[in-house]
Amino acid sequence: MSRGPMLRTEHLNANYGMFQALFGINFSIERGEVVSLIGANGAGKSTLLRAIVGSVPVAAPSVLLDGEPVGGSAEIDQLSRGIALVPEGRRLFPSLTVEENLLLAAKNGRRGPWTPDRLYRELPALQKLRSRPATALSGGQQQLVAVGRALVTNPDFLLCDEISLGLSPVAVETVYELLGTVIEEGMAVILVEQNVRRALSSSSRYYCMLKGNVVLEGISKTADYARVSAAYFGD
Ligand SMILES: Nc1ncnc2c1ncn2[C@@H]1O[C@H](COP(=O)(O)OP(=O)(O)O)[C@@H](O)[C@H]1O
Ligand SMILES: [Mg+2]
Prior knowledge:
Blueprint: E1 6-16, E2 19-30, E3 34-38, H1 45-53, E4 63-65, E5 68-69, H2 75-80, E6 83-86, H3 98-108, H4 116-122, H5 124-128, H6 139-151, E7 157-161, H7 169-184, E8 188-192, H8 196-202, E9 205-210, E10 213-219, H9 225-233
Parallel strand pairs: 3-8, 3-9, 6-7, 7-8
Antiparallel strand pairs: 1-2, 1-4, 4-5, 9-10
Helix pairs in contact: 3-6, 6-7
């Protein structure tokens, strides 16, 4: 019942120098699916996303797009394949304006429905800020730019690393509203989220990681919250 591009990892290991951060991760996501990745600080969630987009080195055959090995590629090559990361901590270019951040990303990505203009239509507040340096924005506004920057590359797979971290409740709502639109239009999303309840209610499947391993996975709707939190803390 494959519905198109499928992204998966097969026995994925990742290291930072001598330190092994991921141990044989098997993960998969299909087109249009929303999958959440939960786990405590240091579990390896960001490393898994980075390994998929190529900013952490991995063995080539362990990241597959439609069965084709794409591991070990540069982040820009993954963009052209339709895989984009909204990194932890946003990482906007501080010397560039909102508009310049978006245009630069669009140039490195693929053509499709998401353009800076479309983003401004969805988020009129952002349009008013387009000529401001990205770092002059509030945390919530910066996060919208960070998500927008990934969106305008028109990925099939959008990888979101803790996009609600440190934001006000109103800002979180705005970011998740944008994400809702994206999901409705069929983009697949990997959601790394500290808030387990939000993670489960926003996704169809989940993986729970602990110390570089997947310790539990399943269907979000029927997830047993007590069991998930036990896995989360390694009890
Ligand atoms: N750049 C790095 N250099 C060395 N170790 C790192 C680096 N980034 C993460 N780690 C280590 O890898 C493990 C997984 O980290 P990370 O993927 O950031 O976890 P999470 O996103 O789940 O909090 C942790 O033990 C962390 O200390
Ligand atoms: Mg992280």
